Description:
The chain is built from 20 helices and 17 strands. By secondary structure, the protein is α/β, with parallel strands linked by helices. Helix 14 (about 385-390) links the parallel strand 15 and strand 16 (about 395-400). The radius of gyration is 24 Å and the shape is elongated.
Amino acid sequence: MNILFASSEVHPLIKTGGLADVSGSLPRALKGAKQEARLILPAYPAAISRAEKLRLESDIVLPGARTPVRLLHGWLPHSRVRVYLVDSPEHFDRPGGPYQDEDGKEWPDNAARFALFARAVSAIAMNRAGLNWQPDLVHCNDWQTGLVPALLSCKSQRPATLFTIHNLAYQGLFDWKTFKSLKLPVDWWSLDKLEFHEQVSFIKGGLVYADWISTVSPTYAGEICTKAFGCGLEGLLQHRRERLSGILNGVDYRVWNPGKDKLLAQSYTARTLERKHDNKVALQKAFGLPERAGFPLLGHVGRLVDQKGLDLVIKLIPQLIRRRLQLVVLGTGQPELETALTVAAKKYPEQIGVRIGYDEDLAHLLEAGSDIFLMPSRFEPCGLNQIYSLRYGTPPIVRNTGGLADTVTDASEANIAAGTANGFVFDDVTSASLLEAIDRALGCYTQPDVWTALQRTGMAADFSWLRSAAEYIALYERIIEAPFEHPDCRQQRLHKIPAELST
């Protein structure tokens, strides 16, 4: 199949979060499975500098750009995946990140920027970009590509569309004035289309018009159809439930593999778990903690935001200190959480280490050197760190939600006996529930045979992209065979109005 994979960020070209990891890994896996997967993203300065063998492919005249938009063609580094960069300097040639300026403030023209990107994707999808190539399916990701399925919906001989939700909490909401400036069909400003509480919602473009919707874990696919996790869109998602799937994200085990990880103090495997201790010593040193024989080391790396549940951990610090353990945290996020953790580290310098910021090398060492990984998220569409932890023999403590529920099997007596347990799961979003899970983990930690079994079970699990890619390929085939026809398009077809005139 010819697949056009549209994303606002792709590792290693540009990254702010997990979307970039998925966008950099899944197309590679699809290519490895003999699918013609091609990437498209905006031509940010970082992407231009990092793409390989970049050249000008064509110029496209698009609404929203004062000059023709250049389409650059290159290759994803160290791969056989083609990359197209949408080069419109007025939209993408600027310092800062993909969505925010250097001060962390949202770009005020984000709606115009990603509307233009969507129009470029649509032009390629309809083979109107001078490439002499048309995809069978366009795989769109998150709100930045939400307009693509809407723009393509009523076109004749269009490719199929899949829209993947990586995090429903981010929806791409803009006011009426901005909507008018985009020169989109006026009738899209309606409740059954893109209007959402008197704003235009880019994500609704994908949810309303895509042939199929997917999320990044099976459990999250069900959760977003409920009021608790639906972010106000649960009614629409319930309406489209028959065309909603959850496919768990994969992990690149070429990068996250303790047996070959050059970022560790000592590599190790399930057969040489005793070597893991060298990484614990290196991690304690990196965080300025003393070596403490018998003290289990709990670790966390990630964004310090409410979603991740670090406030639950902070509330427990006085009780954790009494349990003779150490805690290390690596991340950046909400100032109040950063401050609380920093204060705790200063108060208990021999038991708590905190590093505000992000360090890829240290993240790998933290996964390997920790005894237990903490991930008490309130919600987690998929999550990757718990999967890394499993491979590194670091049993995770997670809440029973989203991808965490799909990857971690609780160390109940029955699961331990069956040999399926690989971590610790708790249900309630409370510090008390988290503490109970921590205490269960500490109890197992004192039983070497039980603990080693947990570690080896986690290390043997397969959450590779090869598995995920096979599921996506099966879904792509299903979508292409059974496209969705929006009621607007059906009405146009019945009245024989050319689709090209409909917008």
